[in-house]
Amino acid sequence: MFATMNPKEILNSHNLKRTSCREGIIEVIMSSDKALSENEIRDRLFGNYDRTTFYRSFKTLVESSIVHKIVVDNNLVKYALDNQVTHKNEHAHFYCNECNSVVCLESVTIEKPALPEGFSSSEIDFVIKGTCKLCKEKAE
């Protein structure tokens, strides 16, 4: 289960070589209560990794379905641990127009749609945009 797995165990369960950069990226994402951009992850990462090392490690984690991307729009992409790692159901994400945060809405589950014969889906994105509770309270 996700709550008891650490970065080392996550990498091992996906048959990936353990590197300090990969473990660090997973740790940064696990320690956040919201989805993060690549820059936010890189800025919070302990260790002095060059751009190439970071992006190769990051790309491997995305391709291995440890990290998934949440596309808000053409200019904004955030990342969180994949549902295969967290054992969550497919769910919606909420983007706050005020503070630019993205949070998982685990209570808003997404049913896989029935596609016409011959079609197959690789991912489903459902992003709700608006104002989060904290920003709404600040405005009042």
Summarize this structure as a short list of keywords or feature phrases.
single chain; about 140 residues; alpha+beta; Arc Repressor Mutant, subunit A; three-stranded mixed β-sheet; two-stranded antiparallel ribbon; 6 helices; about 35% helix; metal-binding; repressor; zinc ion binding; WH_DNA-bd_sf; DNA-binding transcription factor activity
Describe, in short, the structure shown:
The protein is α+β, with helices and mostly antiparallel strands and 140 residues long.
Q: How much strand?
A: 15-25%
Gyration radius, rounded: 16 Å
- Report the mean per-residue pLDDT as an integer: 88
Q: Strand sequence of the main sheet, in spatial order?
A: 4-3-5
- In angstroms, what separates the terminal alpha carbons? 40 Å
Number of domains: 1
Q: Given the C-alpha coordinates, what overall shape results?
A: globular
Main β-sheet description = 3 strands, mixed
| Individual helix count | 6
- CATH topology assignment: Arc Repressor Mutant, subunit A
